[in-house]
């Protein structure tokens, strides 16, 4: 089981989950996340390890399967960045989200702040028939 203080290799383990394998247990989350962790991603904001665990479990339950793979980890002092790709299989479709997580560690080495940065809209609606071309058109108009 992973324990603080976390290093690059243990963060790589925490942010790796192949399709078909179980995600971390509540006990594993509690070992590395502070009781009052602040979690933010493009779809939600949660306070506390129980809310964080509920958010992670909810994602896994809504999907047929989930994968997470880490490409890079950078650490300095009490701060870490993890670059990753997440895949979600839902009703026969696969959605891929490249992203980055910013982690801040408390004095005890556990994670006190966790913020995920990724594009939720493009990968979610881009592959959907009819909706995909509209999303790509909007992106072209406002991003290009």
Brief characterization of the structure:
This is Possible transcriptional regulator. InterPro entries: NTF2-like_dom_sf (IPR032710), SnoaL-like (IPR037401). The protein has 144 residues and is an alpha+beta fold.
Strand content range: 35-45%
CATH architecture: Roll
Strand order of the largest sheet: 2-1-6-5-4-3
Runs in which pLDDT lies below 50 for 5 or more consecutive residues are: none
Number of domains: 1
**Beta-strand segment tally:** 6
Distance between the termini: 45 Å
User: H/E series, N to C?
Assistant: HHEEHEEEEHH
State the secondary-structure class.
alpha+beta
Percent in helix: 25-40%
Question: How many distinct helices?
Answer: 5
Tell me the overall shape. globular
CATH level-1 class: Alpha Beta
Q: What is the residue-mean pLDDT, rounded to a whole number?
A: 95
Task: From the 3D structure, determine the CATH topology.
Answer: Nuclear Transport Factor 2, Chain: A
Topology:
Blueprint lengths: L7 H7 L11 H7 E9 L2 E4 L1 H14 L2 E12 L2 E12 L2 E13 L5 E8 L2 H5 L5 H13 L1
Parallel strand pairs: 1-6
Antiparallel strand pairs: 1-2, 3-4, 4-5, 5-6
Account of the protein in words:
- The chain has 144 residues and is an alpha+beta fold.
- It has one domain (8-119): Nuclear Transport Factor 2, Chain: A.
- The protein is built from five helices and six strands.
- The chain has helices at residues 8-14, 26-32, 49-62, 121-125, 131-143, and strands at residues 33-41, 44-47, 65-76, 79-90, 93-105, 111-118.
- The chain has a six-stranded mixed beta sheet.
- Strand 4 (79-90) and strand 5 form a beta hairpin.
- The longest helix is centred in the middle third of the chain and has 14 residues, at 49-62.
- The protein is globular, with a radius of gyration of 16 Å.
- The N and C termini lie far apart (45 Å).
- The model has no long low-confidence stretch (mean pLDDT 95).
